[in-house]
Amino acid sequence: DIGGVKKKIQEIIPHAIYVHCYAQRVNLVLVDVCKREQIARDFFELIQSLYIYMFSAIPHAKFCATQAVLHPGKVAVELKRIIDTRWTCQFAAIDAIKKRFSALLNTLEELSSTSVAGCSDRAIMALELLNQICNFKFVLSLEIFIFYLMISTE
Question: What pTM, to 2 d.p., does this model score?
Fold first, then answer.
């Protein structure tokens, strides 16, 4: 926490004791538990991998175009980055995936079948991500985490 409240207070009062608020305590517990549990760790790593992959130009453009076809008249949903210190970010990330899951599947299917020269790495990664998110464990984790994160962000 480079420029946070704790640092600013300790600059003025060096011996001040810092105590996290209850929301921050809950956040720290959730982060710690999820980092220790393999299923949760794998799930959030996959969410982050999806974000990184879909953030690049070609996948992002295809994802937006697919959303326009599948959800006409609605604003395109952007995938969100995972940030450990804010559980609202985890909720936003998995909520975006849940809302546009069909568009994400279609986009990854299209990208995985692309055989354009120079795109083989992109196609392989799309196929790998597609296989992982079509997995029952991922879909179940998505439902469970969206439920519990919704409660914890209220």
Answer: 0.76
